[in-house]
Design goal:
alpha+beta; seven-stranded mixed sheet; 2 domains; Immunoglobulin-like; 8 helices; about 525 residues; Purple Acid Phosphatase, chain A, domain 2
Amino acid sequence: MRFERRQVIGGIGLLMAGPLLAQMRQPPKMPAHPFTLGVAAGDPDAAGFVIWTRLAPLPDQPHAGLEPLPYDVRWQVAEDEQFGRIAAEGQALARPELGWSVHVELAGLKPARRYFYRFWQGDYVSPTGRARTLPGAAADVRRVRLAVAGCQDYPSGYYTAWKHLAAEDADAVFHYGDYMYEYGPRASAFNFVTGRQEPVVRPHNSPMCFSLDDYRRRYQQIRLDADLQAAHQSTAFMCSFDDHEVVNNWVSDIDPNDVPADLFRLRRAAAMQAWYEFMPVRADAFPRGGTSGPWRQYRYGGLLDARMLNTRNYRSDQPCGDKFGSFCDGVNAPDAEVLGRAQEDWLVGGLTRQPARWNALLQQIMMMNLDRARADTITVNTDSWAGYRAPRDRLLERLAPVTNLVVLTGDEHQHYAGEVRLSNADDKAPARAVEFVTTSISSGSDGPGERKEHAPILARNPGLKYLRDERGYCLMTVTPQSWQTECKVVDTIRAPGGRLSTHATWRVPAGQARLERV
């Protein structure tokens, strides 16, 4: 449920303050500045967005130094950075059941407008964040700038790429997932490129995540990072999750380590609650039944219809024992699912009924059917769409009427750009879509740029045009004439101060699923 200007929304964990506060024992004075984890905005639409914060005055202490009581938090949204023109304001409760996080779902704002927001608790004022509302559904939009990033393994390096992304003035950021990694502390990690153990840059400060407290501690450690906070303050995020927010390569109710389903559901429920608590997402993402993360639409007038998908909750088990670089009969299983039929019908129905000039799938796992060149025969990543040919080809066939289809993906820790075809299509057949896979913020640590396996992968996959192993992000500029993607890289994340550059720029002309290097 949403309320109009100058009111805070009702709903779970966001009850309007007032009579309730009078009935509750008032918490003691805040022991220190409570906004150590910063602020964030997310899930924009034409009437508003979500603003988020979490009280943590003493983040290294149990309960972050807070009493197990609700704390009142005031918030304010303005049209100017000096808060001279107030657009909305109100009060919310930061509840211990949700780790003293606050989600305010704004409505009644003007479309296609930048706003500034902040929070108060007592005499303490948060940093100021900014976010844009989406244009109206019928608006004549001429340009959208969308950043894409994710895969931020904390021990692998500094979040330097987030610092650079914060300066891009993007309309929004699509975070494709792996916001945190569930692993425990380790002194070193195996580098698959060099074949050596490399020391971590900065260790996790807590064990492998299983309980709600474990996951909360991990997110809290990550959210203390200044570069990540700067990115969140710079624009609204469209937040997804992939696998490491729970455990590597999970799908549906299936734990990859053969843990019984009932036990895995307990872990997933804890992980999904923590994800919700720390993400600027709407109330319908509140975890119910141990799952979270609804699929969403972000519409930029007639120019761009961006659909964020969920490729974990409804997927059938990975084939071939989930062995990367393998191939088996299970890849062709006719009853396999990735999205599940309800989500697939929503996607196809929405895009075919009222397509925009450009139509984008914001999702987590690669859609290109790449041969990974691990043997003389075909080998695939079984945790990607290539391991699920039947639902992959069915979706591409159903989306055939949709023109200017672009797929945005993460997970692979490298930049890729290529064309998406049906699984057994000839390389000269028209592509059904173009896909950009964005590299990681930090996962994989510093990369060499080119790997020895890049040449054979490119040779076996003529539709793949680009492959690069460095850390960074992508910046998309969408106009009626073209879709342009800048593949940004940072020269090092193993020390602060890494320099940013654009390694490659790709253009997709409107009306053609074809890549041109600029």
